[in-house]
Write a structure and sequence with these properties.
alpha/beta, nine-stranded parallel β-sheet, elongated, disordered C terminus
Length: 467
């Protein structure tokens, strides 16, 4: 073996030489250890705690022991958990908002947590359940897929917004013969086949549900459009009415754009009578006529309802008279929206006479109802006597010059009305200006009063923003 040069201390030691053996000339050999990882050092060795955390994260699905860890260790584990873990593992164990924030952001592009009480976990479960309902196909999707989620999400779901319900998948004989249902009347042919998911079992199993927003229809159906896709059937109505009746904590119920007619409204109204918590009912953009409105008039006087929205229906003067009767009796209603109906003067007069005794209603919308001077004559008295109304909308009616003057006379001593919408009502410009001056003064007085009494409702500030 070739001998190293004198003084070379970095060469390997011959097998026969012990480490650092002295040579005759006084030099010595040294051993050089070459490890498998040249960058290895004691500085990079993980702590035992870190190794444990890695093991817990890796085996979390099989052994979720999060609650047995210290708070600082819990956070480290949660920060590394995968958002694809089964909900059966994470739902009732992981309560850290950062984890559910990651779940939401990775799944949806728009995430406004302020609409969910600033709770990311609530947002995730509400939207997850909504998505399942939107794409549930009766007779195809297993109902257990929905009900199995209930034990996991029932503590967090407070609001459900479902803007589509899919019908069953079926082949119609008419379709096979290329004779499709092209008219709305043909939709009745398919009614027996278009029942939707029965919400009763789900809604009654959600103890904290406070808001329910439903639309029975199909979004983005494109060239597959058929009227049968937008049917709210009798079976749907029966199951929904039973579900809402059993949902004792429900405060807001919205059933819009679902072709709800009088028979279905009467069934729903019967089940909502004496509801302990319902405060807001939105039935806008449906097919409600006089009989349905009369049933809702009875509901007004037999419930705690505060807001009723009947915009864009087919209510005429008889229906308006039924609603007026409910207002004249004991009522807690504070807001009534009848925009885009057909109540005309006989209906408008009935509502006005009811407001001569009603002391609860604060906001009334009668826009686009073919009203004219007879209605303003009654409301002139209302404005002179009623001390509760703060907002009236008469827009898009034919009040005329005399109608504007009558409203101006009624406002002479009114101190409470802070908003009066007279756009497109044919009121004289000067009269409209004088009315605006009175309403503006009332609004300013209300604003100053709210500043002096902060606990009072800030009516003036609210109305000024709406302007």
């Amino acid at each position: 073996m070739q001998q190293p040069a004198a003084g070379d201390k970095s060469t390997a030691i011959p097998p026969s030489c012990p480490p650092q053996a002295n040579l005759a000339d006084g030099s010595f050999y040294t051993r050089r250890c070459i490890t498998e990882d040249p960058s290895w050092s004691l500085v990079t060795v993980p702590h035992l705690t870190e190794l444990c955390i890695q093991h817990i994260v890796h085996n979390f699905e099989k052994n979720p022991i999060l609650n047995y860890l210290l708070p600082e260790h819990q956070r480290k584990v949660v920060d590394r958990l995968s958002t694809s873990l089964p909900l059966t593992v994470t739902a009732n164990i992981v309560s850290h908002e950062d984890y559910w924030k990651r779940c939401c952001i990775e799944r949806w592009q728009v995430c406004d947590v302020s609409n969910y009480g600033d709770s990311w976990k609530r947002m995730f479960f509400e939207r997850h359940l909504e998505n399942i309902l939107k794409f549930f196909i009766p007779s195809t999707t297993d109902p257990k897929k929905v009900l199995e989620l209930v034990p996991l999400c029932k503590g967090y779901v407070r609001k459900l917004e479902v803007d589509q319900f899919l019908p069953p998948v079926w082949v119609d004989e008419k379709e096979e013969s290329n004779d499709l249902a092209d008219t709305e009347e043909d939709a009745n042919f398919n009614e027996a086949y278009t029942h939707h998911y029965d919400l009763k079992d789900l809604i009654t199993a959600l103890p904290h549900l406070e808001e329910l927003h439903l639309t029975y229809g199909v979004k983005s159906c494109g060239m597959n459009f058929e009227w049968s896709l937008f049917n709210f059937t009798e079976q749907d109505c029966f199951s929904l009415a039973a579900a809402v009746k059993m949902c004792h904590n429900l405060k807001v119920f919205k059933l819009t754009q679902s072709k709800v007619d009088d028979d279905k409204i009467k069934l729903l109204a019967r089940n909502l009578l004496d509801h302990p918590c319902l405060l807001e009912l939105d039935l806008s953009h449906n097919l409600i006529r006089d009989n349905g409105a009369q049933a809702l008039g009875k509901l007004i006087s037999h419930s705690r309802l505060e807001t009723l929205n009947l915009c864009n229906n087919q209510i005429c003067h008889l229906g308006a008279q039924g609603l007026a009767q409910g207002l004249a009796e004991s009522s807690s209603l504070t807001s009534l929206n009848l925009r885009l109906n057909f109540v005309e003067d006989r209906g408008g007069e009935a509502i006005g006479r009811a407001l001569l005794t009603n002391t609860s209603l604060k906001s009334l919308h009668l826009g686009s109802n073919n009203l004219s001077e007879p209605t303003t004559a009654v409301f002139s008295q209302v404005l002179a006597q009623n001390t509760t109304l703060t907002s009236i909308n008469f827009s898009c009616n034919h009040l005329g010059l005399d109608g504007g003057k009558q409203l101006l006379e009624g406002l002479a001593n009114n101190k409470t009305l802070t908003k009066l919408d007279l756009r497109h009502t044919e009121v004289e410009q000067e009269t409209g200006f004088l009315i605006h001056q009175i309403v503006w003064a009332n609004r300013e007085a209300a604003r100053l009063g709210s500043l002096q009494h902060p606990t009072a409702e800030p009516l003036g500030i609210k109305c000024s923003r709406e302007q």
